[in-house]
Backbone:
């Protein structure tokens, strides 16, 4: 998909969208013009529309200073990451405001993705040049993505507006908040249809497109979250059924680091990845702004994560050029890893580690990581080690974002067994399966023993933290566990900064609705506390 699917057909779709807007404003329909009525007819038309919907995922992380909102809004707010040299940051310190650009970017990109999926679903029935079997797959892809976007809205804004059709009038854009549970219900319905309509596997030319397994994994994750958000333990059984159906269909790769290098993408452990790529005349811009050569934007995660300069102005190679050092690792995460856990070096750099990134991916320049490059002594290695900017026209990387891995399936299934069916032995076996991949000998990471519910849940929380650190899951995990009464964020979590610990409050379980959206649509109510 990265090479032959996501990097094709965007130009035609964008032009069609532009003509559509011009038609609405000028009421002109020149002979042969591409517009909403003439474009959505052929298989290639819908391939382009599908690529456009997928490309929305790239908009979250394209920008080197986080204009997409993803790095701060999903990552820096957890207890694993902190800002560069302890610089003051309202997002990290939970001084969240409705005027913050972070929330506006995440909100607008998410609804943009929903609009793009809605148009596919609406236009498919009348497309005479597309076979029924092909229509089914395109609709399933659109529903997978729409399910993902609505799930994202539910866990970030609660009762955000539910948009299921393309607004055609100004009045239709004034949609108020959804009712409690509506976003969850809509996402579940979409993901079930996606699971039924998507193929088990794509050929190599389409690798990276959503599969039935990806839909089942996303559905199971949603059900697990809902069980905890709404205190509905019966949903653990439904979630477990989705995860159990995927056991054996994927596998844990032998080398943990292979999950985060650009040369080992879409591997046997991958369930769904955001396919990154750079092309066109200006790869500094997000996918929405690249009109030439069917291009898509890459991810700025690499330059955002790479080390820069410490408080005493001791700098890493490439500081300020290929590394901005915007993220540092909290001491809490540094201490969370058991001594010798091989995942530590794949996740975070410590003093004396080989700094094998950029032009030193082969170690030829013998760069050695220095704690003096940061104030905490550590910066991210995940998505940084063994990655070099492939396209030097921009600071972007083509390293895919791993959204769901098989390890996540196993640990979410373990959680369902532990909290749902009370199969303690089954839960422990799954936790140990993940640990054994990291250390097959068992000498560094001994098996977790079957103990009490509380002991096993503590082991599960530890395993999720070290296995998925810097993969944008941690704060969501803390929120759902807090809502389920399994932890108390205020007393149990150390965010690594006194101000963050002091400021965190129940209101931070949700994000503020962007004020710019409420100015345009007064029907949307603000979340409590903002």
Residues:
């Amino acid at each position: 998909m990265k090479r032959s699917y996501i990097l094709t057909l965007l130009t035609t779709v964008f032009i069609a969208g532009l003509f559509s807007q011009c038609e609405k404003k000028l009421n002109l329909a020149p002979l042969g013009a591409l517009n909403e009525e003439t474009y959505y007819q052929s298989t290639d038309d819908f391939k382009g529309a599908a690529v456009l919907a997928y490309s929305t995922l790239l908009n979250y992380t394209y920008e080197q200073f986080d204009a997409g909102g993803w790095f701060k809004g999903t990552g820096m707010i957890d207890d694993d990451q902190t800002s560069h040299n302890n610089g003051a940051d309202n997002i990290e310190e939970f001084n969240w405001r409705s005027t913050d650009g972070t929330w506006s970017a995440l909100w607008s990109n998410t609804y943009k993705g929903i609009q793009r999926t809605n148009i596919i679903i609406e236009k498919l029935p009348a497309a005479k040049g597309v076979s029924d079997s092909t229509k089914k797959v395109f609709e399933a892809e659109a529903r997978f993505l729409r399910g993902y976007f609505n799930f994202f809205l539910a866990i970030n804004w609660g009762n955000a507006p539910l948009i299921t059709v393309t607004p055609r009038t100004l009045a239709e854009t004034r949609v108020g908040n959804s009712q409690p549970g509506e976003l969850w219900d809509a996402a579940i319905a979409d993901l079930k249809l996606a699971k039924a309509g998507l193929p088990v596997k794509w050929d190599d030319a389409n690798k990276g497109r959503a599969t039935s397994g990806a839909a089942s994994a996303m559905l199971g994750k949603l059900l697990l979250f809902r069980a905890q958000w709404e205190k509905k333990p019966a949903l653990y059984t439904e979630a477990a059924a989705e995860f159990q159906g995927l056991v054996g269909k994927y596998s844990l790769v032998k080398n943990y680091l292979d999950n985060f290098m650009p040369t080992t993408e879409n591997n046997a452990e991958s369930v769904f990845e955001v396919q990154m790529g750079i092309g066109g005349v200006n790869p500094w811009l997000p996918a929405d702004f690249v009109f030439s050569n069917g291009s898509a934007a890459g991810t700025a995660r690499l330059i955002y994560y790479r080390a820069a300069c410490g408080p005493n102005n001791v700098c890493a190679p490439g500081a300020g050029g290929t590394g901005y050092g915007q993220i540092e690792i909290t001491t809490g995460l540094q201490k969370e890893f058991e001594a010798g856990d091989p995942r530590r070096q794949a996740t975070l750099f410590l003093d004396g580690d080989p700094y094998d990134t950029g032009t030193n991916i082969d170690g030829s320049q013998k760069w050695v990581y220095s704690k003096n490059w940061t104030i905490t002594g550590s910066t991210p290695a995940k998505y940084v080690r063994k990655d070099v900017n492939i396209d030097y026209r921009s600071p972007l990387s083509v390293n895919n974002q791993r959204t769901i891995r098989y390890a996540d399936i196993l640990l979410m299934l373990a959680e369902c067994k532990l909290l749902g069916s009370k199969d303690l032995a089954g839960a422990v076996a799954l936790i140990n399966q993940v640990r054994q991949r990291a250390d097959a000998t068992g000498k560094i990471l001994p098996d977790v023993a079957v103990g009490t519910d509380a002991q096993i849940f503590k082991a599960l929380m530890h395993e999720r933290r070290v296995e998925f650190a810097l993969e944008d899951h941690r704060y969501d995990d803390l929120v759902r566990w807090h809502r389920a009464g399994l932890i108390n964020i205020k007393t149990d979590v150390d965010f690594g900064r006194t101000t963050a610990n002091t400021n965190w409050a129940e209101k931070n379980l949700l994000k503020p609705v962007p004020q710019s959206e409420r100015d345009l649509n007064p029907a949307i109510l603000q979340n409590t506390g903002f």
